[in-house]
Amino acid sequence: MFKYGTSYNLALDKFLLWRDFFKVRVHPEFYSLYKPGCFSEVSMEFSKRSREVALEITRAISESLGLEPNYIHDAMNMERGIQMLAANYYPPCPQPEHAIGIPHHTDHGLVTLLIQNKMNGLQVEHNGKWLTVDGPANGFFVNLADQMQILTNGKYKSVMHRATVNNKATRISIAIPHGPSVDTIVAPAPELLEKEGQAPKYLAMNYKEYIQLQQSEKNYMKSTFDHIRA
Predict the structure, then answer these.
(1) Over 80: is that where the pLDDT of 2 sits?
(2) Cα separation of 124 and 27, whole Å?
(3) Is the peptide bond before 36 cis (omega within 30 degrees of 0)?
(4) % of the chain exceeding 70 in pLDDT
(5) Are the CB atoms for 78 and 170 separated by under 8 Å?
(6) Whole-model pTM above 0.70?
(7) Measured between alpha carbons, how far is 121 from 90 in angstroms, rounded to an integer?
(8) Residue of 110, 164, 174 whose CA lies nearest to 141
């Protein structure tokens, strides 16, 4: 699975999308560009190492919830889970006040790792305001995503975020989303509900169907959670 494209000069709510990108699946099947010649080897190694980081994060979250360390890994069938590698290129924009790199959204998976060059542009929503993320040098910024919010019954929140552009310098970011297997039925963890004495806040839904719903035209830039609240 491979996808690439450009978002230049597309009208969207009075804003222009301003981005070149490619996106490729790297797990459970590994796909790659053929050029440049070294890309396949480098991207495979990078994907394997970043996957180790993501799985360690899921283990830490499981333990923080009082569950077994591999609970999320096993319940979400992450051995067959979807992992993507996406690269975004945002050149200087002559009118950044009229453009956006990526509109506001939440990621549909479990956890996304993000790195960027020294040009900040990632913003997260907090208490109704957009805050620019000062990303760690040579480190990952971690976004929690929709299936993590569903699985934890809202204890861990999916992060609303967007990418902005500037008129000074190019911004480059690499995102590595990790999710369940496409056939996994995701619902609030029964063990967690029992432990916390809670009712489920979200309906169970097949992960593939959730992705299709989130990416449907009628749901563009809207919260998919509105369709699955219990």
Answers:
(1) no
(2) 27
(3) yes
(4) 92
(5) no
(6) yes
(7) 9
(8) 174
CA–CA dist 78, 63 (Å, integer): 17
Cα angle 102-46-156, degrees, rounded to a multiple of 5: 55
Tokens of 69: 């360390």
Q: How far is CA 197 from CA 24, 86, 117, 125, 153, in A?
A: 41, 39, 44, 30, 12
Domain 2-227 has CATH 2.60.120.330: yes
The rounded mean pLDDT for the chain is: 91
CA dist., res. 55 & res. 168, Å (int)? 37
The arithmetic mean of pLDDT across residues 117-137, rounded, is: 91
Are 90 and 170 contacting, i.e. CB atoms less than 8 angstroms apart? yes
CB 146 within 8 A of CB 109: yes
- Structure tokens given for 58: 């899921």
Q: Where are the domains of the chain?
A: 2-227
pLDDT at 219: 72
Q: How many Å apart are CA 126 and CA 114, to the nearest integer?
A: 18
Peptide bond connecting 94 to the previous residue in cis, omega within 30 degrees of 0: no
Amino acid identity at 105: H
Please tell me what DSSP assigns to residue 47: H
- The set of long-range contacts for 1-9, using a CB threshold of 8 Å and a minimum separation of 24, is 1/25, 1/29, 1/31, 2/31, 2/33
Distance of CA 224 to the CA centre of its chain: 14
How many alpha carbons lie under 13 Å from residue 224 in its C-beta half-sphere?
26
d(Cα 55, Cα 224) in Å, to the nearest integer? 25
Element holding 71 (H helix, E strand): helix 71-75
- C-alpha–C-alpha distance, residues 200 and 187, integer Å: 8
